[in-house]
Amino acid sequence: MTGAERNGRAPGLGTSAGRTPVKFSAEHVGIADAVARAEVIDVEAGLRLRVATASDLVILKLAAAEEPSRRSSKRQQDLADVTKLVEEHAEVSKALPDIEQRIATIGTKIFTVKNVSDDRG
User: Fold this and answer.
1) Using CA atoms in the order 46, 51, 54, 60, what is the torsion angle rounded to 10 degrees?
2) pLDDT digits (tens, 9 = 90+) for 5-26
C-alpha cells in the first residue's frame, strides 16, 4: 500500500489499482456526501471522471477555511476559491443561500487570528 493510499481516499468501484487516491484535509466534513453526489464527466474518448459538484466543493473549502490548525494563507486561499466558485456557478448561491455571510464570518475569523499571531512575533 502506498502512502497516498494510506492517507487518501479512492472512492469508486473495482480494485484500488484502478483508482487514484486523493487526500482531503477536511475529510470529516461533507466528503462522503460529495463523493455520493459526484457527477461523471467525459474528459476524452474513453476517459470518464467523477467530480464533485460546485456546491460540494464550496462546502469542503469552507470546512478547510474554518480549520484553525491550517496556516492563515491556506485558509485565505480557500476563501478565495469559494468566492470564485460562487461567482462562476450560480447554483451555489441557490443551494447555499447564506454563503455570502459565511464567507464574511470566516474571513473575519481568519484575519482576527492572523493579527493576534502577528502581534506575538
Assistant:
1) -160
2) 444 555 566 666 666 565 555 4
